[in-house]
Amino acid sequence: MTTAQVTTHVPWNHGRIIGPKPLLKPKHIWAIRTRLQHDGRVRDLAMFNVAIDSKLRGCDLVKLRVSDIHLGDSVRLRTTVVQQKTARPVPFELTDTTREALAAWLKKRELRSGDWLFPSQSHGGDHIATRQYSWLVDDWVALAGLDPAAYGTHSLRRTKVALVYKRKGNLRACSSCSATRSWRAPFATSASKSTTPWSCPSKLTSDEGRGVPEPPRPAELGGLQSDRFRMARLPKQTFPLQLEQLVE
Hints:
Elements: H1 26-38, H2 42-54, H3 58-61, H4 66-69, E1 70-71, E2 74-75, E3 78-82, E4 89-93, H5 96-109, H6 130-143, H7 153-157, H8 159-168, H9 171-176, H10 225-230, H11 243-246
Antiparallel strand pairs: 1-2, 3-4
């Protein structure tokens, strides 16, 4: 008699922290900036600030060129980058803190307009790899006393949008500064108090006798009603929003 061999399958997520990555808080941002400035890490400081302001994916951030953010003898206030994943242009604006960090980085490396903004130190003529950028994010997060395993590159990407929404409560402003198509996407990791699902009502027709449901009234909606109805009446915000304006 032969004994059947029992094979155990180990799930791919065994022992890993999965799910949405948490966002960085303003105190964490200032802690990371202070440590990078103190250690004289000019490139890392510029890259961190650009990651917060641009809301770009890692694959798009590492492929930025000097001409994307620099014009003439100064750093651009606004620029547009075409995303690799969606092939859609994404406009974003750079704050004063980011522009100062970029100016210091460009002055140190003496980069030309056609060069990569963050060139690789081991492979000449190439930009840094996305894996290296991920390692840098882990290092930055550790500087703020956080667990690198719980945070990722998307934590930086969604931070500013969440801060804008927390400060202004204006979904129109969030959609203006978000690199995603949907305004709901940046808030997927935000702590939402409302757990009641909300679905868009069916399309209305002129025939009321077919039993088509009426659109929900503001009083009948859950936690999202104030956001959805507020978006139509609040004015657009002026960007770029400085981080100091997003903190109470």
